[in-house]
Structure formats: structure tokens, C-alpha cells
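Handoff note, outgoing to incoming analyst
You'll be picking up this chain. Sequence as last confirmed:
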Amino acid sequence: MSEKDFAAFWPVFQEIVTSAQTYTIDPAIGFDDAYRLWCQAPLATWVAKDASGTLLGSYYLKANAAGPGDHVCNCGYMVAPAARGQGVARKMCEHSQTQAKASGFLAMQFNAVVATNTVAVALWQRLGFRIVGTVPEAFRHPQQGLVDTHVMHKALMR
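Most recent structure output, in case you need it:
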């Protein structure tokens, strides 16, 4: 993702992060740190646009760990509020799995899926991810207080 694309995506990123309902990213993160986190630190970052060029969402792909754990990848997905419910997250997740396999990753793991984010949990499960662990009260939800997070995993090459 170019810096220009990230600048267009920035309002979506800010809205999602400042809502503090789904991501363990500091809500006060600035543009430069967010760009490094979302675009420079990962192996690759993609942006989803419709036929007219309207930004629908973005995701990144990176190794989940280093060294002996670098065969498992991790992704983060964000969908623009106006594009929710249109299959954008599904398409990005399917695309990310194809990209992960092409990059040699053997599995994909999501480290902290907020349990109250039931739409995401259900989507990931429909796409073949399993909850392999639950961390009690690992997330401070602004309305619901301390809530659980799930570790979700899917083998990509079997």
C-alpha cells in the first residue's frame, strides 16, 4: 500500500482504532506510527477498492513470529464502515490466504480476536479458522468492560 493509499485509508483506520472495540492498537496512535505499523512492518499490505476506486478496506500480511515460528502468518483486516456487510472482509481473508500460501506460510493465526466481535468470529469460523484458545478478560471494551479474546488458527498447507 502506498503512502497515498494509506492517507485515503487513514480515516477508516482512525475510526476503527479510536472506537477501541476490535483492535489492540493504541487509540492515540498518530499517522506516521500507524503507517509504519500497517504498511512498513508487515511483509505486504493491500487495499481493497471497488470498480470506481472507492476504498473499501485494507489488510496486512506478516509472519506471526520470528525464527522457528516464521512459517505461521498473521493478518489484520479493516473494512470501511460504508462497505460493511458487503463481503469485503471475506474477500480480503480469502485473498490473504492465497497470498500467504504463495509466500510459503503453512498456517495463519489471529492472536487476539475480541470475543464480542461476533461477526468477525463467525466469519473466520466459516472460512475454516478454529478457536484454539481463549484469553480471559484480555481486552478492555469501552462499553462491555473486560472481555475475552480468541486465538484463531487455520492450517494452509495440508
